[in-house]
Amino acid sequence: NAGVTQTPKFRILKIGQSMTLQCTQDMNHNYMYWYRQDPGMGLKLIYYSVGAGITDKGEVPNGYNVSRSTTEDFPLRLELAAPSQTSVYFCASRPQSTEAFFGQGTRLTVV
Amino acid sequence: GDSVTQMEGPVTLSEEAFLTINCTYTATGYPSLFWYVQYPGEGLQLLLKATKADDKGSNKGFEATYRKETTSFHLEKGSVQVSDSAVYFCAPLPSGTYKYIFGTGTRLKVLA
């Protein structure tokens, strides 16, 4: 059972470039989340989804976009990368009323 | 709104010391309560949980009791090891909630 899989694990972007962080889960969970974790800090919620076709903003959505066309996949899009988006990004999923399962993270550096 | 307050870190302890990390929350209704642990370079993973008042969650020597009257879920371990060095997150999940907000976490450093 793979759980939550994130790709890539590491990425360096130049300012103004775009990229998509991939997240897929094989547990048939309805709820999926994207968080960012800045060095030495906690998690900030970027976007979340309660099912295919339904997404909503979290605490820090600016500069990001998401889509949820299937239950399994929840990609995060950065359109115009900025140094402030240097962070570690975590994807998570959960079934209703119980704990979340996290991916291993994507470490992104914008230079 | 719903929120969680954890003690600030870093918490530095010697091996075999007693650990307490305080967590209090505000939430409507009766949330499920979770402690997650994040080891260096990894994602978060569930450490323990409790889903109703007076429940005690336990795992790997860690314990936490769901205290409805004080809205607390303090994490304890009788004797910490160097391998327990990590960041610990208290994360209540209010019933019927879609958003899942985490706090700042508490960094624990255990010295040999």
Structure at a glance:
Chain A is an all-beta fold and 111 residues long.
Please count the beta strands of chain B (DSSP E, at least 2 residues each). 11
How many angstroms separate the termini of chain B? 41 Å
> Stretches of chain B where pLDDT falls below 50 for ≥5 residues?
none
Q: Can you count the beta strands of chain A?
A: 11
**Class from secondary-structure proportions of chain A:** mainly beta
Mean pLDDT over all positions of chain B: 93
Sheet/helix structural class of chain B: mainly beta
Backbone shape of chain A:
globular
Largest sheet of chain B: 5 strands, mixed
The helix tally of chain A amounts to 0
Largest interface, counted by CB within 8 Å of the partner chain's CB: A-B, 26 and 22 residues
Along the chain, the helix and strand elements of chain A come as EEEEEEEEEEE
- Cross-sheet strand order for the largest sheet of chain B: 2-11-10-5-6
Query: Main beta sheet of chain A, described?
Result: 7 strands, mixed
Task: Calculate the mean pLDDT score of chain A and round it.
Answer: 95
* Assembly status: heterodimer
